[in-house]
Amino acid sequence: MERVTITLEDELLEKFDKLIEAKGYKNRSEGIRDALRSLLAEEEVSSNDEAKCVGCVVYMYNHKERTLSSRLVEEHHHHHDIPAATLHLHVDAENCLETTVLNGTVKQVRSMANRITSQTGVKHGWLHIVPLED
């Protein structure tokens, strides 16, 4: 490891110290390394559609929406090489929450997540992408 020195404004350092304490980091170095990894991962995902990644799409829908459940299943089967696993949770009498792990390129994962979350009856949807290192 290499040691580096950085200069930060007092206010920024104070906010960072509060953040790393709240998140449970042992020291500033761990917090800075994590922040750098996050920044680099975000850049990789935004600049390279062909980068390998895993994604997690979380979506809530009304299971009483006509044919929605079967459309979602059909979407998974039609692109069987991208979804890796799905967790299904009954939130209440009408709503279900699903989390689907996707595996592929950034372009494939985004496209699949968009096909899921744009279905009529899906109320909320979010995608989180983690790039995979070669």
Write the layout of secondary structure elements.
Elements: H1 10-23, H2 28-47, E1 52-62, H3 68-78, E2 83-90, E3 95-105, H4 106-117, E4 122-131
Antiparallel strand pairs: 1-3, 1-4, 2-3
Query: In angstroms, what is the radius of gyration?
Result: 19 Å
Structural class: alpha+beta
Number of helices: 4
Total E-strand runs: 4
Average residue-wise pLDDT: 91
Q: Which stretches are low in confidence, meaning pLDDT under 50 for 5 or more residues running?
A: none
Portion in helices: 40-55%
What strand order characterises the main sheet? 2-3-1-4
- Please provide the ordered H/E string of secondary-structure elements: HHEHEEHE
> What spatial form do the alpha-carbon principal axes imply?
elongated
Proportion of residues in β-strands: 25-35%
Question: How far is the N terminus from the C terminus?
Answer: 21 Å
Largest sheet, in brief, is: 4 strands, antiparallel
Descriptive notes:
Helices cover about 45% and strands about 30% of the residues. It is α+β, with helices and mostly antiparallel strands and about 130 residues long. A hairpin with a 4-residue loop joins strand 2 (about 85-90) and strand 3 (about 95-105). The protein is elongated and about 60 Å long.
Short description, anyone?
This protein is α+β, with helices and mostly antiparallel strands and 134 residues long. 43% of the residues lie in helices and 30% in strands.
